[in-house]
Design goal:
Strand order of the largest sheet: 1-2
Structural class: alpha+beta
Number of strands: 2
InterPro entries: DNA/RNA_pol_sf, Rev_trsase/Diguanyl_cyclase, RNA-dir_DNA_polymerase
Largest sheet: 2 strands, antiparallel
Radius of gyration: 18 Å
Order of helices and strands: HEEHH
Organism: Trifolium medium
Protein name: Gag-pol polyprotein
Distance between the termini: 26 Å
Amino acid sequence: DMPGISEGIITHKLSLFPNVNPVSQRKRRLCEERRKVVDEEVRKLKEAGFITEIEYPTWLANVVMVKKESGKWRMCVDFTDLNLACPKDPYPLPSIDRLIDGASGCETLSFMDAYSGYNQIKMNPTDP
């Protein structure tokens, strides 16, 4: 079971520059240890409904395995090419001080539990 924000509340819609060409990264090879971890992580993400298998992908991005202090592996994805195809937000994020000041006097505060730090908001199913 993976926590996250319900699709009924929000999904992330990916914005791409018009007429951008999809990029298919050249496959990077993984050693046996890392490949086993990737297979297990992919299985968990599929079971939780966070990822689905598609037959003809237009964008391909490699996984990157990062060793954590605990010795376990963290699976990340190299979205460098996809990020270059996305417009940047024209506004800065607010500072933590401004956010705290804005919440003063409120009766209810809500926090997102960043249990795993990743996979909190699902992608819009219509995205490529």
